[in-house]
Specification:
The chain has 2 helices and 8 strands. The chain has 113 residues and is α+β, with helices and mostly antiparallel strands. The strands form 2 sheets. It has a 6-stranded antiparallel beta sheet with strand order 1-2-3-8-5-6, covered by helices on one side. Strands 4-7 form a two-stranded antiparallel ribbon.
Length: 113
């Protein structure tokens, strides 16, 4: 737990958008469906909406939320680097990939895109 919290504190120091004292503006973020497209009004109203992504434009971050009881794949068109994933704890962080990101159930992940 100490290593995990230390990692999160280091990420907060590294990225200004994770230290913000104000809410994001519409220009600074994009809410994404797990399929990679922008969230629609219908997506927000769906009773099973338990997974979504938040792209933080200024720092090139993608914050993924999976509130479902099963694993989920989030689609991202470009390369990514995993910075943190609550389902993986303190596994080695230097994981990179392209496209889909496999996320564990009931977890939050932070990717650099």
């Amino acid at each position: 737990m100490i290593a995990w919290v230390a990692r999160l504190a280091e990420l907060r120091r590294r990225f200004a958008s994770l230290r913000g004292e104000t809410y994001f503006t519409h220009e600074e973020v994009r809410w994404l469906h797990p399929s990679g497209r922008a969230m629609s009004s219908a997506d927000w109203a769906a009773p099973d909406t338990a997974a979504l992504g938040l792209a933080i434009v200024n720092d090139g971050l993608l914050l993924l939320f999976n509130g479902r009881a099963e694993p989920l794949s989030f689609v991202h068109e470009g390369p990514w680097e995993r910075l943190a994933d609550s389902a993986r704890g303190c596994e080695p962080i230097a994981t990179t990939g392209q496209g889909t990101y496999a996320q564990g159930p009931r977890s939050v992940a932070l990717l650099k895109i």
